[in-house]
Amino acid sequence: MKYFFSLLLAGFMLVGAVESAEAKKFGSGGFGKAFQTSPYKKASPTSPQKPASSPEKAKSSRPGMGGLMGGLLAGGLFAYLLGSGAFEGLQFMDILLFAALAFVLFKLFAKPKLRPQYAGMQREAHGTQTMFTGVSTQQSIPMEFPQDFDVSGFEQGALEHFALVHKAWDQGDFATIEEYVQPELLDELKQQRQQYSATLDNQIMDLSANIVRAEPIIGGHRISILFRGLMKDMQSNEEHGVFDVWHLEKHGSNAWLIVGIEAE
Questions:
Q1: Containing domain of residue 216, as a range?
Q2: I need a surface site. Which of 22, 97, 134, 218 has the fewest CB within 10 A?
Q3: Separation of alpha carbons 51 and 229, rounded Å
Q4: Cα gap 264→243, rounded to integer Å
Q5: How many domains does the chain have?
Q6: pTM of the prediction?
């Protein structure tokens, strides 16, 4: 019986380790407002956008490793059990523990599904430019920009601000973060940041930004921008994907502020 408890505990620890890598970045888990955003389709390949402040070269993730490691781990665990004689005299409680262990392994290595708000979106390889249809299969997505709005310049500037905000997050610099987020969200972010060490080190390896929603609101305008790419936790040497939508609002002559983040 002790073998099963040990393996079950190890499974839960592995789940926590995998989730913590992505949880440390700014906006992980999402918060604030959420809106339906535009689907997109692939256009002609171009050079990927990169934040000016990132000195790292772009790297691509290695797909399929999760499934491979899951198979190896599961095979190794059951081979160990067979060799150790742990299957002798199985009881009903042992079967339940096996089921729990199988569930943990499934949750750990199963490919996550896109959230409902990203139903019209599919990941594309780095190095491709995206174009937006402006119409969802379920409802019309607004793409109404302010007069003389520079879409390309806004997207390029968003990359620089993304890097700046994440650097401030790593350093616990909330004086800088306060300039970017709605005041109501600041306390929530501070509570989340307190869960981690005093200094983090998340490096942006590759990043692109595209506007996926734009609409006028009372007294101003709202824009949603999708960030896609790759980041690396230098402390744990773990890479994780970025698929975040930032919802920004601007009232009058005030600056654009983050009012919500949807993070996969």
A1: 24-60+114-263
A2: 218
A3: 11
A4: 6
A5: 1
A6: 0.59
